[in-house]
Design a protein that fits this description.
By secondary structure, the protein is of the alpha+beta class. It has 2 domains: 81 residues; 94 residues, Ribosomal protein S6/Translation elongation factor EF1B (Alpha-Beta Plaits), CATH 3.30.70. 54% of the residues lie in helices and 21% in strands.
Length: 191
């Protein structure tokens, strides 16, 4: 049976219209919607990165502010400090002063050995080794007097050895001090 020619004509028109609609829909999707979806996804990714960077910047700013407060505190303490560093040119005078201070406190000095200065950024460190004998009380008084009188020195290490056979006998000691001296003028600073 043959379809009426009018109906065939309508089916052809409908098929052409459907094909045209599908073609237009494809063009609209691939030409407009899909690129917009991609650009929206890229935009969202960029926004997320921006938010992450802002959060990192906020944390860094908080750390910077905390460090600025600490730096200000240290600067104020340094301004109040009365410690004036001597140069290593006065090493003999420093050793004589330490020896005199030890004997004034009842500490016998066997040896005083200065080490090589080690350059730092803002000062030099000079190791000084003292050996000798003393009773415990005299040794601790010497250390207290040393710290009070020479605040530019620190105790790096000490050994105090007693005699188990004669507990009342003096102890022997080995004391390692660090003298913080002014840097040499013209010497390159190490950072």
């Amino acid at each position: 049976m043959k379809a009426p020619s009018g109906m065939w004509r309508w089916l052809q028109i409908d098929a052409a219209a459907v094909a045209a609609c599908l073609a237009l829909a494809g063009i609209a999707y691939f030409g407009g919607v899909r690129p917009r979806l991609r650009s929206h996804g890229a935009y969202s990714a960029v926004q997320q990165k921006l938010a992450n960077h802002r959060a990192m910047a906020d944390r860094a700013e908080g750390q910077r502010k905390a460090l600025a407060v600490r730096l200000d505190t240290v600067r104020r303490a340094l301004a109040r400090s009365t410690i004036s560093l001597e140069t290593t040119a006065h090493v003999n005078r420093r050793l004589a002063r330490i020896s005199r201070m030890a004997s004034e406190n009842g500490v016998l000095v066997g040896e005083v050995l200065p080490g090589r200065p080690k350059a730092g950024t803002h000062y030099q460190t000079v190791p000084i080794i003292l050996t000798g004998g003393a009773d415990y009380r005299s040794f601790t008084l010497f250390l207290r007097h040393l710290r009070k009188t020479l605040p530019d020195m620190g105790v790096t290490a000490f050994e105090l050895t007693g005699n188990a056979v004669q507990p009342a006998a003096d102890c022997t000691y080995r004391l390692t001090l660090s003298w913080y001296a002014a840097p040499e003028i013209g010497a390159p600073s190490r950072r």
